[in-house]
TrEMBL record:
The keyword Transcription applies. InterPro entries: RNA_pol_sigma-70-like, RNA_pol_sigma-70_dom, RNA_pol_sigma70_r2, RNA_pol_sigma70_r4, RNA_pol_sigma_r2, RNA_pol_sigma_r3/r4-like, WH-like_DNA-bd_sf. This is Sigma-70 family RNA polymerase sigma factor. The keyword Ribonucleoprotein does not apply. PANTHER family: RNA POLYMERASE ECF-TYPE SIGMA FACTO, RNA POLYMERASE SIGMA FACTOR HI_1459-RELATED. Belongs to the sigma-70 factor family. ECF subfamily. It holds the Pfam family Sigma70_r4. Residues 24-86, 129-177 form the RNA polymerase sigma-70 region domain. It comes from the Bacteria. Keywords: DNA-binding, Sigma factor, Transcription, Transcription regulation.
Length: 185
């Protein structure tokens, strides 16, 4: 079933929408959640919560790209669950590494002004990503949006881990410079 047909099922409040979404995007959303959480049960719960959030969001929202709409929901739910677990105990895995790597590029959000600027920062990062070469953008998104391990990214693009790390380092440097020019850092 096509995405537009699935979205139409949501808009018609047809429960088949969830079944069709799960069939088409279940493994995709699970992979996103598992990359962040590294816990099968938590990942599965986030995926199920994604279907509920999608159900509650449509209508009024009508996503143009259902795949990215679901990815963002899954990612946000997984980050929330990760933060909740982290509050209970310090954890390992990719999330602390990813957050540490990006920390050098992004301004602090500890104050009210930082919270207000968060939306503009999101817009600026999206603008930055649009001008990157395709592979560089894909590697960056795989690491920092989908939280994929460097080794997995390397296999996906036929690159050695060291090359992936160089791409990520250079892209973070470009992002840092871009954000300086935009007066975010």
């Amino acid at each position: 079933m096509k995405d537009s047909q699935i979205v139409e099922l949501y808009w018609n409040r047809d429960e088949r929408a969830i079944r069709e979404t799960s069939t088409r995007y279940g493994r995709y959303c699970y992979a996103i959640a598992d990359n962040i959480l590294h816990d099968p049960e938590d990942a599965e719960e986030c995926v199920n919560d994604t279907w509920m959030r999608a159900w509650n969001a449509m209508p009024p929202q009508r996503p143009g790209r259902l795949r990215m709409f679901l990815a963002k929901i899954t990612r946000n739910l997984s980050f929330d669950r990760f933060q909740a677990r982290r509050a209970q105990k310090r954890g390992g895995g990719e999330m602390p590494l990813v957050l540490e790597e990006l920390e050098e590029c992004l301004p602090s959000r500890d104050d009210v002004e930082g919270e207000v600027q968060a939306r503009e920062l999101e817009r600026a990062v999206s603008e930055f990503l649009r001008v990157l070469p395709e592979r560089e953008c894909s590697v960056f998104l795989r690491r920092y949006f989908f939280v994929e391990p460097v080794s997995q990214i390397g296999r996906r693009y036929g690159l050695k881990e060291g090359h992936v790390l160089v791409i990520l380092s250079r892209t973070r440097q470009k992002l840092r410079e871009f954000l300086r020019k935009e007066e975010y850092v």
